Amino acid sequence: MIKEKTREKRPYLGKDERRKSLLKTAAELVESQGWSVLTMSALADKAGVSRQLVYQHFPNLESLLAATAMNIYMATAEGTGKAIAEHAGNIKMAIRTAALVSLDLPRGRGDALWQLISGTTLGSPELETIRIGIRDTILQLWAPMLKQLRDGDEKQGRTLAWMLVMAFWGVRQMIRDGLITRDEGLIEMDRVLDRILLKSPQAITA
Description:
Layout (H helix, E strand, L loop, with lengths): L14 H19 L6 H8 L3 H7 L3 H26 L4 H13 L3 H12 L6 H22 L7 H23 L5 H16 L3 H5 L1
């Protein structure tokens, strides 16, 4: 007679610790397989818990996706905010320092962020809403600094900020795919920044 396999008992975690553990597992799923694989069932299976437990922490898929996106993005947002604060008088150094934060992310995390930022391969209205929210968060960080290059125009500052964000991530993808080296990518980013900041030397040297 074949004995039924005994399921390993999961360790007890408090509510906050369990939620953090689930978010960590959700991020691992996304970073290894992409956003499309993250469902309530997939998270329960990966974490070795019941779907009911997952629903206790995330009432629906939208809330799970949003929490996972912020969990993945948070370290980058904090690094960007720190770069801006430390180089408030030097736009070039602020952008370069923030770029290094994102450039040095683990490959899977960087890919997951790129999908969110660019809107590629998301395939759900929930993720599209999250993408717009992340874009707005990024612009809130950068627009106050960059609008000074557009005579204080908020709209133009936001446009310039997003152009630079997309330029950086384009370079990151080329580095990721082995088309250029990391050093070559940074050199090209510096050239782009120098061209943009040329009419405002104080933005480079302050």
